[in-house]
Specification:
Length: about 600
C-alpha cells in the first residue's frame, strides 16, 4: 500500500489481522497490532477483537486476557465478541475459574452473554470436570432466554453427559416441533444429529424428519457439518439414504479440492474432517470404494506436500530404499522391562514393541516411546518431532499394557496409514486375561464410551460409538478365582476401550486398578504384577499396497502368569499352553472359540 501511495487505516489493519486469525498466524496478528501506533492508526474494538480471536484459536489465553485488560487504557470498550474470545481462550487453556469469572463480569459491563459465550463456558466446565457448574450455566441460560438456537440445548445436554431421560426427551420434543414448523440451518441440523447420537437416542421418526431437511441442503454444509451429520447417523442407527448422499457430496468435493490454496490451519481441518467422514462411513458399514479412493489420493498428496515442505530426505528415495534403516531385532519376550525394540522397519513406516510402563506419547511418565523413536531416527524425519502429528504414531497403547505400535517416518506414510485406520483396513489384535468365565457366545461389545481427563472411561448407552470383537479361547482358575483368556480385535480405538468394555460386561481385565475394586486389584497382584493386556498383532499395508503382518508373543511376565493358572478343560489347556509359549500365534479371526457345556460348568461351580 505505501508503494501505491495508499495510507493504511484501521479498516485495513483490522482486515489483515482477521486474515491472520483465520490462518492461525497469531504472532503476525499481534505484530500488526503493535505496529499501528507507529503508523498513527488507532486500534478500535474490531482490531482488538480480531487479535483476541487469533490468540483464542491458538490457545494463548494469557495473551487474550492481556488484550482485554489493555483495551480500557486504549479507550476502546470491550464488547461481547471480546469477552467471548477471552472465555474461549480460557476454555482451550483449561482455565475454568477465569472463564467463569469473565462470564460473571459481563452483566456489570452491560453486556448480555450470547450462545457463543455459553458454549465456551459449558465447554470449559466439561473439560475441567466441573459438570455441576456447567449445568448451572445451562439452566441460567435457559431462564434468561435470548437468541439461543434450537440446537443449543441438545448440544449442552450431550456435552455434559446428562442422563435424565425426561430432560432429554423434552429437549428433542422441542427440536421436533421446530423441525415440523421451519427449515433449520445446516449447522443446527448437524449439531442436533451429533447430540442425538451422543445421548443414545433411538427415534427413527425424529431422525427421518432431520434427514428430510438435511439431504436437499448438503451442498451448503461445511465439511465439519457433514462430519457431525454422518457421525450422528452412525452412532444412532444408520440411515442409508443419508450416508449415500453425504458420500456423494464429499466425493465431489474431494475431486475438486486443491489443498495448495488452503492455509495450513484450514488444510489440517479439512484432512481431519475427511478422515472422520471415512471413519463414520466405515463404522456404519457404508464406505463406498469411490469415497475411499478419492480420500486416499487427496490425503496422501497432502502428506507428500508436507514432506516436501519439511525437506525430508527420505521422500526422494525409491520405495525399496530407506535412509537410516533400523536394525530389526527379534523382540525378546523375556525382557519385559527392557527398552522398546524395533520389530519391522520399512522405508517410511515401522513397528515398535512397547514394554509395559512406557507411554507412547504424552507427559504421564518419564519413559516415552516418542523419545525412543526420536533417538533412534535422529533428525532424518521431521514428523517424529512433530507433536501435532503425534510424533508419527498412529495409535496409542495404555501405559501398563505391552505390545506392538505402528509409527510413520514421513507425513505421506502417516496420512496413508490414517486412511487405512479410519477405513478399517488395519487389524489390531490383543490377548487379555479377565475375571469370570466369559460366555463363549459373547462375540461383540458395542457399548458407547466417554471419558474426562484422568478419570476412568465410562461405558454405557451414551458417548462415542465403540466396538470390541472377542473370542473366548480358554477358561481357567487361579485359586478360587475364575478367569478367561480372550482374543480381542477392536473395530474402534477409544481410550481404555477394551478395559472399560470388559468391565462393563462384568469381566474386568486382571490387575486393573482403574476398572476393578481395590480389593480385587490387590488380590490380582499374586497372579500378575500389571494389567494383563497385550497387543500381539498388527496388520497393515505399505505405500505400494503390499500386506504386512507383525506378531509378538506375550512378554515373560505374562507368560509366567499363564503358568500359574489351571485350565478348566483340555481345549483351554492347549490354548493356554500355546499362548504361554508363543507358538501358534495367528490372526484373531483364525482363533477357534472355546466349545463347552457352559450350563454344566456353572452348575459345577455352584
Amino acid at each position: 500500500m505505501p508503494e501505491a501511495k495508499v495510507v493504511p487505516n484501521e479498516i485495513t489493519y483490522s482486515a489483515a489481522i482477521s486474515s491472520c486469525e483465520k490462518g492461525g498466524q497469531w504472532q503476525l496478528a499481534l505484530n500488526l497490532l503493535s505496529l499501528m501506533p507507529a503508523a498513527r492508526v488507532v486500534p478500535n474494538e474490531i482490531t482488538y477483537n480480531a487479535a483476541s480471536s487469533a490468540c483464542e484459536k491458538s490457545g494463548h489465553w494469557q495473551l487474550a486476557l492481556a488484550l482485554l485488560s489493555l483495551m480500557p487504557e486504549a479507550k476502546v470498550v470491550p464488547d461481547e465478541i471480546t469477552y467471548n474470545a477471552a472465555i474461549s481462550a480460557c476454555e482451550k487453556g483449561g482455565q475454568w475459574k477465569l472463564a467463569l469469572n469473565l462470564l460473571s463480569l459481563m452483566p456489570e459491563a452491560m453486556m448480555v452473554p450470547d450462545e457463543i459465550t455459553y458454549n465456551a463456558a459449558i465447554d470449559v466446565c466439561e473439560r475441567s470436570q466441573q459438570l455441576e457448574r456447567g449445568l448451572q450455566i445451562l439452566w441460567e441460560s435457559r431462564e434468561r432466554g435470548g437468541s439461543l438456537s434450537v440446537a443449543y440445548f441438545p448440544w449442552a445436554l450431550a456435552r455434559l453427559s446428562v442422563h435424565d431421560p425426561d430432560i432429554i426427551s423434552a429437549a428433542f420434543d422441542e427440536v421436533a416441533l421446530k423441525l415440523s414448523a421451519s427449515q433449520l440451518a445446516p449447522q443446527e441440523l448437524s449439531i442436533i444429529a451429533w447430540a442425538f447420537g451422543m445421548l443414545g437416542m433411538n427415534n427413527p421418526i425424529f431422525f427421518n424428519a432431520l434427514v428430510i431437511q438435511a439431504v436437499p441442503q448438503l451442498r451448503s454444509f461445511t465439511m465439519g457439518d457433514l462430519l457431525k451429520l454422518a457421525w450422528g447417523s452412525a452412532a444412532s442407527g444408520v440411515d442409508v439414504e443419508l450416508f449415500m448422499a453425504i458420500q456423494n457430496e464429499v466425493t465431489t468435493r474431494l475431486e475438486q479440492v486443491d489443498l495448495r490454496l488452503f492455509s495450513e490451519l484450514s488444510r489440517n481441518t479439512f484432512l481431519q474432517d475427511t478422515l472422520g467422514l471415512l471413519w463414520a462411513s466405515n463404522f456404519a458399514g457404508y464406505c463406498s470404494n469411490k469415497l475411499l479412493a478419492s480420500a486416499r489420493l487427496v490425503i496422501r498428496q497432502a502428506g507428500a506436500s508436507m514432506d516436501r515442505a519439511h525437506g525430508d530426505a527420505s521422500i526422494s528415495l525409491p520405495a525399496c530404499q530407506s535412509i537410516g534403516e533400523l536394525p530389526c531385532t527379534e523382540a525378546d519376550p523375556w525382557q519385559p522391562d527392557g527398552k522398546p525394540q524395533t520389530i519391522l522397519d520399512l522405508p517410511d513406516r515401522l513397528v515398535i514393541f512397547k514394554p509395559p510402563g512406557w507411554e507412547v506419547h504424552g507427559q504421564g511418565t518419564e519413559l516415552q516411546l516418542s523419545s525412543f523413536l526420536q533417538a533412534t531416527l535422529g533428525k532424518h524425519f521431521a514428523i517424529v518431532h512433530d507433536e501435532e502429528h503425534q510424533c508419527g504414531f498412529l495409535h496409542r497403547l495404555d501405559v501398563p499394557s505391552s505390545g506392538l505400535v505402528l509409527a510413520a517416518k514421513t507425513y505421506e506414510a502417516y496420512y496413508d496409514l490414517k486412511v487405512q485406520l479410519n477405513a478399517g483396513e488395519i487389524a489390531r489384535d490383543y490377548v487379555i486375561l479377565c475375571h469370570g468365565w466369559v460366555r463363549p457366545c459373547l462375540k461383540d461389545i458395542k457399548a458407547k464410551v466417554y471419558w474426562r481427563g484422568l478419570l476412568p472411561t465410562v461405558a454405557g448407552d451414551q458417548g462415542k460409538p465403540s466396538w470390541t470383537r472377542l473370542k473366548v479361547t480358554a477358561h481357567a482358575r487361579h485359586r478360587s478365582t475364575a478367569l478367561s483368556l480372550v482374543a480381542v480385535r477392536i473395530a474402534t480405538g477409544r481410550k481404555h476401550q477394551i478395559r472399560s468394555h470388559f468391565s462393563h460386561v462384568g469381566h474386568p481385565t486382571v490387575c486393573d486398578g482403574k476398572y476393578t475394586a481395590e480389593a480385587t486389584f490387590q488380590s490380582d497382584q499374586d497372579l500378575c504384577a500389571r494389567n494383563f493386556l497385550h497387543r500381539y498383532r498388527l496388520a497393515f499395508k505399505d505405500l505400494a499396497g503390499k500386506d504386512h503382518e507383525v506378531m509378538m508373543p506375550v512378554p515373560a511376565d505374562l507368560m509366567i502368569s499363564l503358568q500359574r493358572v489351571t485350565a478348566e478343560d483340555i481345549q483351554s489347556a492347549e490354548t493356554i499352553r500355546d499362548w504361554g509359549t508363543g507358538s501358534s500365534l495367528r490372526s484373531w479371526q483364525d482363533y477357534t472359540p472355546l466349545i463347552l457345556d457352559f450350563g454344566r460348568r456353572q452348575a459345577d461351580t455352584q
